[in-house]
């Protein structure tokens, strides 16, 4: 009976070590963004290089898009729906994003800045 208890305890500690080990799979960091004429809110986000990120972008009014060319991000956000885009930044810097669908007179000012830090 003692051997059985020791074996179960050892397996439990091994399982905990694997789950807590560096590099273990983690859920992506989620950032919620609201898109509405003529702004993203928030309009600046900061993420870490090498950390998986999921953007949840909700349109409150019309169809919008998000393009951040240098990070390879491109998605459409349909009217009153939420789009999800997942990425892992591989370089540090400040990257400009913009709305990819004409949404009216103020469309040109609809931008999103992504800061990627170490």
Using the coordinates above, name the CATH class.
Mainly Beta
The CATH topology annotation reads as Immunoglobulin-like
CATH level-4 homologous superfamily: Cupredoxins -  blue copper proteins
Secondary-structure-based class equals alpha/beta
Measured by DSSP, the beta-strand proportion falls in 35-45%
Mean pLDDT: 85
Describe this structure in words.
This protein is α/β, with parallel strands linked by helices and 118 residues long. The chain has one domain (26-117): Immunoglobulin-like. It is 16% helix and 44% strand. The chain is built from one helix and nine strands; from the N terminus they run αβββββββββ. It has one helix spanning 2-20, and strands at residues 29-36, 39-41, 44-48, 53-59, 64-68, 73-77, 82-87, 93-98, 111-117. The protein has a four-stranded mixed β-sheet, with no helix packed on it. Strands 3-9-8 form a three-stranded mixed β-sheet, with no helix packed on it. A hairpin with a 2-residue loop joins strand 1 (29-36) and strand 2. The longest helix has 19 residues, at 2-20. The model is unreliable at 3-21 (pLDDT under 50).
List the keywords.
disordered N terminus, globular, 4-stranded mixed sheet, about 120 residues, Immunoglobulin-like, alpha/beta, about 15% helix, 9 strands, 3-stranded mixed sheet
Summarize the structure.
This protein is an alpha/beta fold. The protein contains one helix and nine strands, in the order H-E-E-E-E-E-E-E-E-E.
């Amino acid at each position: 009976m003692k051997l059985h208890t020791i074996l179960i305890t050892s397996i439990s500690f091994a399982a905990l070590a694997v789950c807590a080990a560096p590099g273990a799979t983690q859920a992506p960091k989620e950032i919620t963004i609201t898109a509405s004429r003529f702004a993203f809110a928030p309009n600046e986000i900061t993420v870490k290089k090498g950390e998986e990120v999921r953007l949840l972008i909700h349109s409150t009014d019309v169809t919008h898009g998000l393009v951040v060319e240098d990070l390879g991000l491109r998605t459409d956000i349909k009217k009153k729906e939420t789009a999800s885009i997942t990425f892992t930044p591989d370089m540090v810097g400040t990257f400009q994003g913009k709305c990819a669908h004409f949404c009216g007179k103020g469309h040109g000012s609809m931008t999103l800045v992504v800061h990627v830090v170490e």
